[in-house]
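User: I'm writing a short report section on ligand binding and want a predicted complex to refer to. Could you take this sequence and magnesium ion and write out the structure as tokens? A short remark afterwards would be nice.
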Amino acid sequence: TEPLLKVEGLKKYFPIKSGVLGQVKNHVKAVDDVSFVVHEGETLGIVGESGCGKSTTGRMLMRLLEPTDGKVFFDGKELTDLSNQEMRKMRRDIQMVFQDPYASLNPRHTIEKILMEPLNVHEIGDPKERKKKVHEFLEIVGLSSYHAKRYPHQFSGGQRQRIGIARALMTNPKLIIADEPVSALDVSIQAQVLNLMQDLQKELKLTYIFIAHDLGVVRHISDRVGVMYLGQMAELADSESLYEKPLHPYTQALLSAVPVPDPDFTREQVVIKGDVPSPANPPSGCRFHTRCPFKMDICETTVPKFAEVEKGHSVACHLYKESRPQ
Ligand code: SF4
Ligand code: MG
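Assistant: Sure. The structure tokens for the complex follow:
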């Protein structure tokens, strides 16, 4: 079966302007040739340090940001071809949950009004039905209808994220793009929100893209995980292979920093040096070569191909012959 979402060669270059005339001096290559698919009903985790392009990727999928290049196919349609009006309609099926629910909830509106808005925008139901649906979804996310008349500031961080999730669900979307939905929450609350999202996925047959900066957070919720570095996909695999047998040195390093739950299981420690280079001036060849403990000569000159090394396990690294030029 066709994947629900297919992303091909997605790029976002932001111009860097300078001088009084504002000439374009260079580009920040925030996302640089990223491809992946998402199957119906699954969760794809996308992980990477800040500035790796994961949020930019998420926003381009909804065309909240226009891609510089590349194609996005959703449910058989090419989103990059749709007019703005057609895209607005399409957003009924793709919704986003944000890191900071407080910033995305209008402080002067009641929860009822906030949750009603997507129904008004997409002209779903009559006023009575809309109200009923708001109350129903408050219950679904673990709040109550008596919360409907309250304002965002009257809720805790975890409750606000439940409201953010309810708002994303109002239009019965197929795909939810959650951009660090639990990063701003206390660890104890994180688990509750993650459990809620998993329950909702089963109940409502949702497909998720779950963006995080930490491999630990997405481990249990993701069927597959992609690791991004400096605007590119370094590795993508099903969760089990990725966590137990990471192939890319960057993934190995990220996992070295995650505590291992099983004490009998030891992982080779890979330590990376230095900071992430600027995406305006990414290193030649493999973008990770300035920090990689396994760097070879070819790594400085040649971009490794993102290639399938084992079934369902793709990686961009010259340590694997599939990534090397023929
Ligand atoms: Fe390291 Fe080379 Fe692999 Fe890049 S291609 S991750 S520098 S070994
Ligand atoms: Mg981000």
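A remark for your report: Residues 248-249, 286, 288-289, 292, 294-296, 299, 304, 317-319 surround iron/sulfur cluster (ligand 1) (CB under 6 Å). The chain has a mean pLDDT of 93.
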